[in-house]
Design brief:
The chain is an all-alpha fold. The chain has helices at residues 2-11, 16-35, 40-67, 74-83, 87-112, 121-149, 169-177, 179-185, 196-208, 211-232. The model has no long low-confidence stretch (mean pLDDT 90).
Length: 244
């Protein structure tokens, strides 16, 4: 993250922090999958699931926010303005905080790979949760990207597909995904620690860095239409939209 912080000093695009966060977790999972001494099948499954998630998310963020983006994400632009002439120091500590948070989310996987129990039916359910959640997150990202690609939709609110039922379906499926590791790790020593994943993710998404910043930025750029969206569509858990 120090290297990525130095990179953004030249590019003035701090969005690379999100990419590093996702890839960093994937790398940490690979390390523990190799170092762990739990059931080999469980370690292999955990590595495939965790790294598959991290690489997919990191690549999506890299393409969407760095390669294709015409400017820095609005959240980080606001951070720059607030930091003033101390922007370098501000982002240094921000990038290190991202590294700390990445470590926090590696913790559940460090428990899973020491679980000695052979794979069973419960683990098949964990894999099913992973497949559904990753598929849902991918679909939400694709639907939003397709909506934004149309020039006629500029300044409008995406209400197609999953976005009709939740204002943040990508975040919802991201949260669901972390429950798969709870199932994989249950029965290991300190298996309850795997609850850090879904609990911490819910906290960060709803109260800290996910939804609050995203919706604040959306209100700035979409105004009244987004206010209407707030009134008619559930914030997190998908549900049928309310009447206007």
């Amino acid at each position: 993250m120090i290297v990525l912080w130095a990179w953004q000093l030249k590019t003035e695009d701090a969005g690379i922090a999100d990419v590093g966060w996702a890839y960093g977790i994937a790398g940490g999972i690979l390390y523990f999958a190799i170092a762990g001494n739990g059931d080999e099948g469980r370690r292999t499954l955990a590595a495939c699931m965790g790294m598959g998630w991290g690489i997919r998310l990191g690549t999506h963020l890299l393409v969407d926010r760095i390669v294709k983006a015409k400017e820095e994400d609005g959240r980080y632009q606001s951070f720059r303005q607030a930091a003033g002439n101390k922007v370098g120091e501000y982002f240094f500590f921000f990038f290190q905080a991202q590294a700390a948070v990445a470590t926090l989310f590696i913790v559940p996987m460090s428990i899973v790979v020491y679980n000695p129990k052979p794979l069973g039916m419960a683990d098949s359910f964990a894999a099913l949760i992973w497949i559904i959640s990753i598929g849902g997150e991918w679909a939400a990202d694709r639907q939003l990207a397709a909506f934004r690609a149309e020039d006629s939709n500029r300044g409008k609110v995406c209400r197609i597909g999953l976005w009709r039922y939740s204002r943040h379906p990508n975040y919802f499926f991201e949260w669901v995904h972390w429950w798969s590791y709870v199932i994989l790790g249950w029965g290991a020593g300190y298996g309850w620690v795997t609850l850090v994943g879904p609990c911490a993710m819910l906290l960060f998404l709803i109260k800290v860095s996910g939804i609050p910043f995203t919706e604040k930025q959306a209100l700035k750029t979409k105004g009244e239409e987004y206010k209407k969206y707030l009134k008619t569509t559930n914030m997190f858990f998908p549900w049928t939209p309310k009447d206007n």
